[in-house]
Specification:
Elements (H helix, E strand, L loop, with lengths): L1 H11 L4 H6 L14 H27 L2 H15 L7 H32 L5 H19 L2 H11 L12 H40 L7 H15 L2 H11 L3
Helix pairs in contact: 1-5, 4-5, 4-8, 5-6, 6-8, 7-8, 8-9
Length: 246
């Protein structure tokens, strides 16, 4: 539960400190003439709040371990040929909790260096935002291939950076996403290989027996499930996903 609070607090850093001092504003429908600049500021803060909350799923997808995790888990389901088992809700839920588990060191660092000093009024909003972004940038740098980052830097027309601080976040995030997609598909290929071998063996046996009208997936599915259970497949897959980030 603490990790959810930390992640939500990261998003709330986008608000100005005056909004908290004024309390939570009420929302009314209608267009009225403002009597003070503070009313306009509060309305803009509420609008900015809704904008940030609408971008929260994109922030979660593009800057954390969620993309690689959910793609690999989806490959596992497709390679076994179990159609919708496990359901999408289970796949997404497992990927989400694994994401919070993998990202917990980063979230804890953000909580220690940015959130707590900000809540204790030791630093202002801009300083807290800069301190909160830095651990996320370090995580993305560790998972981004230099080739993918160089591609985005060349496309953007920026000169070769001397250090990671010179790389803009707008180029780092798509480079990180590109690297995540590559690693996810590489891991998905490794997941597919043993199940593909089973499908080929079953198809060859059925062809040799003259049972060409019997679909091979019907026969191979129990063998693939048996293999996956005997090798404790879920533990192997989850362990491989987690270890790939460290």
């Amino acid at each position: 539960m603490r990790r959810y609070v930390i992640f939500g607090s990261i998003i709330l850093l986008f608000f100005s400190q005056s909004a908290w001092a004024q309390g939570i504003p009420t929302i009314t429908l209608g267009v009225n003439e403002s009597t003070s600049p503070q009313q306009v500021s509060t309305a803009l803060q509420v609008l900015f709040l809704f904008t940030v909350l609408s971008l929260a799923p994109a922030i979660l997808l593009m800057t954390t371990a969620f993309t690689r995790t959910v793609i690999v888990l989806s490959f596992v389901r497709q390679s076994m040929g179990t159609q919708q088992m496990p359901p999408n809700q289970v796949i997404i839920g497992l990927a989400l909790f694994l994401t919070f588990f993998i990202m917990s060191p980063v979230f804890n660092e953000i909580n220690t260096t940015a959130l707590q000093p900000y809540f204790n009024e030791q630093i202002d909003q801009n300083q807290a935002l800069q301190l909160a972004v830095q651990p996320m940038r370090n995580f993305m740098f560790n998972q981004t291939n230099e080739k993918d980052l160089g591609l985005l830097m060349d496309i953007s027309g920026n000169i070769s950076p001397d250090n990671p601080d010179d790389v803009p976040t707008t180029a780092l995030i798509p480079a990180f996403m590109l690297s995540e997609l590559k690693r996810a598909f590489q891991m998905g290929f490794m997941v597919y290989v043993p199940f593909l071998i089973i499908d080929m063996v079953v198809a060859s046996v059925l062809l040799a027996m003259g049972m060409m009208m019997l679909p091979p997936p019907i026969i191979s599915l129990p063998f693939k499930l048996l293999l996956f259970v005997l090798v404790d497949g879920w533990s192997l897959v989850v362990g491989s996903i987690v270890q790939s980030f460290f």
